[in-house]
Specification:
This protein has one domain: Jelly Rolls (Sandwich), CATH 2.60.120.10. It is 3% helix and 44% strand. The strands form two sheets. It has a six-stranded antiparallel beta sheet with strand order 1-2-3-10-5-8, with no helix packed on it. A four-stranded antiparallel beta sheet has the order 4-9-6-7, with no helix packed on it. It is mostly beta strands. The longest helix is centred in the first third of the chain and has 4 residues. It is built from one helix and ten strands.
Amino acid sequence: MLVRQLSEIIDTDRDIKAETWNSRRLLLAGDKMGFSLHDTLIHPGTETEIWYQNHLEAVYCIEGEGEIELIPDGPTYPISPGMMYALDKNDRHLLRAKSQLRMVCVFNPPVTGQEVHDENGVYPAATTDS
């Protein structure tokens, strides 16, 4: 059994900080669960373009207000606590935070923790070594 406290992840290599977001990775590919689990903060007043071409993602909002817009042609959905969205078609999207958003995110395949968004907001495809 795996047991982790969020407080143990803060400021470690599982706490990834970017300009518009901060992702605390509770489960990663190396944990061998078949998915990864993240506690993610989206900074207030930011807009982030993301396009997970190689991963499916489900997101559950537990704090804050914002919106997600599918691009290039919409629609746009409001985000508030209790709202879930699933990017089941590798949807390209804009994520806007009116206030700090706190989201619980699940990725399939799991991320390794070493990924970096490219210029299109894409994580690379997982390899058998991941």
